[in-house]
Every structure is written in structure tokens, then in C-alpha cells.
Amino acid sequence: MQTYDAGNIIGRAEKELYDTRKFTGKSELDKEDFLTLLVAQLQHQDPLNPMDDKEFTSQLAEFSNLEQLTAINKGVASLSQQTIHQEMVNASNFIGKEVRALGDNLSIREDGSVSQLFYALKSEAQKVYMNIFDKDSNIIRTIQLGSQAAGEHDFQWDGKDWRGNALPEGLYYVALAAEGKDGEAILTQTEVSGLVEGVQYANGQNYLRLSDGRVVAFNFVKEVVKASAGNETEQDAPTEE
């Protein structure tokens, strides 16, 4: 909500009212304070030296602008909520379908199988490293993938740590690093895939919850990899902004 500097709208009589309110936890004036001060100013004006018409008109114009801005802010907030709701409805259409989205998380399932990871390199790389972390950000393995051509690749982790021990069921994370022939860093991008089981809202954004517990942001979905039973047509995914 827009606020106003009391020094520009009040005179001597109501200055005390403002000074009193300053120490009650309010450092700025809201709409109600503005109106209260304006009324107080009219009540305490000198009858022999009334408020200048231009000044009074200016203050009323400021109040009108404040009302309009308040209405606009409420309208924007309402529109935002409607957009989020509509996005959630759209995201629910992905339930039961396998999607591919930007992401860096992998899962080891109860049967020991590991979800698949995809990655893209902007240019040819002489060295590619895949660093794998557990949920507490401890690095558990670094895998050297050697030289790689530019373009898209897939990676299938065996679910083992650097000692060769099979790791327990749960979520894990990857960090991909690539170097060119002169040791320069190469831009990389990782993607994950999984079966959508539900939709959830958090931190102002809608997420797709995958069947293995992972979540991906709805606006990070790149494509529907596999349609659900009874619907063989793949759908276009939302475009990342």
C-alpha cells in the first residue's frame, strides 16, 4: 500500500497526533491514518486563516490516488491467485503421465533401480564429471565420463558409492561439470524424468510430485515422455520463461 510523508500533509495541531502514532509500531501512514489526519487538519485549522483551497484539493487528489492504487493492488493479487489456480488445474492433467523436466535429483527405489538422468552440453567437452551427493549434501561419488560431443546425452547411475557399495533407497542429487580442450568451463544442463503422481503448491509455485517422491517445478517441464494408458497422444509441455 502506498504511503505518504506526514510532513507534507499536516499542520501544527495534528502533528502531535502523528508524533504519538510514530511510537506505536507504525513507521508509515496507511489509508486510515491519512484520512484521520486530513479530518484533524480541518478541525484544527484557524478560522481566520483557513486551509488554502489548492492545498486541500491537492490532498484530496492524493487520497483519491491512494484509493485507486489500493484497488489496483487488490486486483493484481486476485488475478495472481486465479493464475496460480488455473496453472494447478493444468498441471493436474499431467497426473499419470511420465514427464521430462529440468532438475538435478535422482532416486534409488525400493527395488534398487535408479531413475534416469539426461544432460546437454553446449559444446564439445574433453572432460565431463558427474558428482553425486546425498540429501545432506555429502559427496558420495564422482564419475568421470571422459570426452563428450556437444548435444544431449543420458546417464544411468548404478546406485553405488565410491567404494562400490549399494546405497539405500532415497533421494540423491547430481552436479555436472564439463571442460573444453583448453580447460574452459562448458555450460551444461541436467534433466530428469518420472511418473507424475500429484500436484502441490509451495513458495508461490506449482510442483509436480513424482511417484518416487521427487518434485519438479511445473514450469520446468520440457515434454511429456510417455502418455498415460488410454491416451496415446503426447502433449506439449509448458514453455519455460
Automatic annotation (TrEMBL):
Keywords: Bacterial flagellum biogenesis, Cell projection, Cilium, Flagellum. Residues 88-221 form the FlgD Tudor-like domain. It comes from the Bacteria. Residues 104-180 form the FlgD/Vpr Ig-like domain. Pfam families: FlgD, FlgD_ig, FLgD_tudor. InterPro entries: FlgD, FlgD/Vpr_Ig-like, FLgD_Tudor. GO terms for biological process: bacterial-type flagellum organization. Belongs to the FlgD family. Required for flagellar hook formation. May act as a scaffolding protein. This is Basal-body rod modification protein FlgD. It comes from Desulfobaculum xiamenense.
